[in-house]
Amino acid sequence: MLNSYGQLCTEVYELSKPVGFTFGDIEYYSERLKGITGKILEVACGSGRVLIPLLQTGLKVEGVDNSGSMLESCRKKCRELGIDPRLFEGDMSRFHLDDAYEAIIIPGGSLQLIEKREDLINALKCYYDHLADGGVFMADISLQTDFDTNVVKTRLWETDNNETITLEEKQIEVNFIEQRTVSLLKYEKWKDGELIQSELQRFPLSWYGLQEFSLLLAQAGFSEIIVSGNYEYGAAPQKADQMITYEARKRV
Prior knowledge:
Shape: globular
Radius of gyration: 18 Å
Helix content: 25-40%
Structural class: alpha/beta
Largest sheet: 7 strands, mixed
Distance between the termini: 46 Å
Low-confidence stretches: none
Order of helices and strands: EHHEHEHEEHEEEEEHEE
């Protein structure tokens, strides 16, 4: 069965990208959000890799994610730490929350999981509508540089329960017209030589040109758009493999 982020996928995410694991984004967002006293929303918060460290700095962060498994993992970690943020289950391209936020963030390129262009346009409008006047939107985007459909990548992890989890990843579609790749991920959990759990995940990833995404933000109503490369605020991206961070504001 194909799914989004199920139980086994969540377990792999926790092993490979635990709470506090950083690409440089946790430090960057902590610095850029410093001084915000109102509510912040992390879209696609997952199991709390970024959300929990931001909460620990004193920021008032809430989260929304479409995966119940990821959110339950996040809640469990928060309970262990004695924190209780508001977390919502919802589609990252069309959710409806009551509050207006001073900032909305999407670290780690998660915005690129929105597969269809029209859904991305609706998502940007959704984020704009959920911001307070003058509120800031921040999101990471990466350019696609791997278009090889003939390679199967395999990784494995050992768990504390003497289990082994393997992940096979194969890119099965490259669509240059719609600027999207699709990979098939196969997760398997083994114990004592027996397969005890498996999941399949269809993993689409969309990409956008450097100026293209700025134009999409402007079309959604955002202004004061700043583009940064490699988590250096205001430094223009120089290489295709750098993470690109966009920051924009809702007009007052």
